[in-house]
Automatic annotation (TrEMBL):
This is Luciferase-like monooxygenase. GO terms for cellular component: cytosol. To bacterial alkanal monooxygenase alpha and beta chains. Residues 15-303 form the Luciferase-like domain. The lineage of its organism: Bacteria, Pseudomonadati, Pseudomonadota, Alphaproteobacteria, Rhodospirillales. NCBIfam families: oxido_grp_1 (TIGR03558). It comes from the Bacteria. GO terms for molecular function: oxidoreductase activity, acting on paired donors, with incorporation or reduction of molecular oxygen.
């Protein structure tokens, strides 16, 4: 049975205070728990005019206090910015707040530009090469298992200790993350929405082929995250998608802005080249009625032979975004 989860990116909307995006994320977590989604993940970006969730561990603490059943986690912590011990301590505290519900998704990408990466960590240029070692240390500390006796940090522990521990995931949009996940026997989620699927099938296959079973995960566990938006009618869905399509035009030029209203996006003037590009985006997007979007999700999951799909949805109108998750959940037999 296909499990559905949610990735919320705390997207800033034009004309609205950025702090509202954070409050909307917390409220959306409560909404998605009621709808029956399996997980609710939040992202990490820095100095980004569109995606303003810069501290997933703090946001997750707020969400933990507002939810009771749904798994919650990071998608993900960009580990090269941080010391593994500090991340382990943060997620051990989250585990104390919501025992058995915490996911620690890890990524190697900066989630920012080079200047911002240096501001976060002056050694940022060197950290990606240490990623496998950092993952190994983090896994030990967050799970409470010992490091090798000859390890310089062997006596160090991450507290608070507890009977449960976060579920560590590897996230990625390239083959590298798939290989690291396979090596450590971790679940793996491919950012399908980030690459429009490019490289996804290959990464998932490499992950399965090279998977080394671990005690917690004896079998490979692959998932993907897709961008999708559903509405009562296809016309309405395309209307709300206009905001995202216009944002993607800006992104192609290296410009990142708050999400504009669909009325602003539809009323703007576009060149012939831009019109062609937006038509291409609409043709590939998972946008339509609940039934249409669900059909596309199921078809992709079956083609990739995966059992879990996370859905990320942007909409200027928050009620349209909430309704999208409701319609998709309904199509998969999930009830509020």
């Amino acid at each position: 049975m296909l499990r559905l989860s949610v990735l919320d990116q705390s997207v800033a909307c034009a004309g609205q205070p950025e702090g509202e995006a954070i409050l909307k994320t917390v409220a959306m977590a409560e909404h998605c728990e009621r709808l029956g989604y399996h997980r609710f993940w939040v992202s990490e970006h820095h100095s980004h005019p569109t995606i303003v969730g810069s501290a997933p561990e703090m946001l997750l603490a707020a969400i933990a206090m507002k939810t009771e059943r749904i798994r919650i986690g990071s998608a993900g912590v960009m580990l090269p910015h941080y010391a593994p011990l500090k991340v382990a301590e943060q997620f051990r505290i989250l585990e104390a707040l919501a025992p058995g519900r915490i996911d620690l998704g890890l990524g190697r990408a900066p989630g920012s530009d080079g200047r911002t990466s240096l501001a976060l960590n002056p050694m940022a240029a060197e950290r990606p090469a240490q990623f496998p070692n950092d993952v190994q240390e983090l896994m030990a500390w967050v799970s409470g298992t010992p490091l090798p006796e000859d390890h310089p940090f062997a006596p160090v522990t991450a507290r608070p200790r507890g009977e449960t521990s976060p579920e560590v995931w590897m996230l990625g949009s390239s083959l590298y993350g798939a290989q690291v996940a396979a090596h450590f026997g971790l679940p793996y989620s491919f950012a399908w929405f980030f690459t429009d699927g490019q490289g996804g099938p290959e990464a998932i296959q490499i992950y399965r082929d090279r998977y080394q079973p671990s005690e917690r995960f004896p079998e490979p566990n692959a998932g993907i995250c897709v961008w999708a938006l559903a509405a009562e009618t296809e016309e309405e869905a395309q209307h709300h998608y206009s905001s995202r399509a216009r944002w993607q035009l800006y992104r192609d030029r290296g410009r990142f802005t708050p999400l504009e209203s669909p009325e602003r996006a539809e009323g703007a003037s576009y060149s012939e080249t831009e019109i062609v590009r937006m038509d291409e985006l609409r043709a590939k997007a998972m946008v339509g009625t609940g039934a249409q979007v669900a059909e596309k999700i199921r078809a992709l999951a079956e083609r990739l032979r995966i059992e879990e799909v996370a859905v990320v949805t942007w909409a200027y109108d928050e009620e349209a975004r909430r309704r999208s998750y409701e319609l998709i959940a309904s199509e998969f037999g999930m009830t509020e």
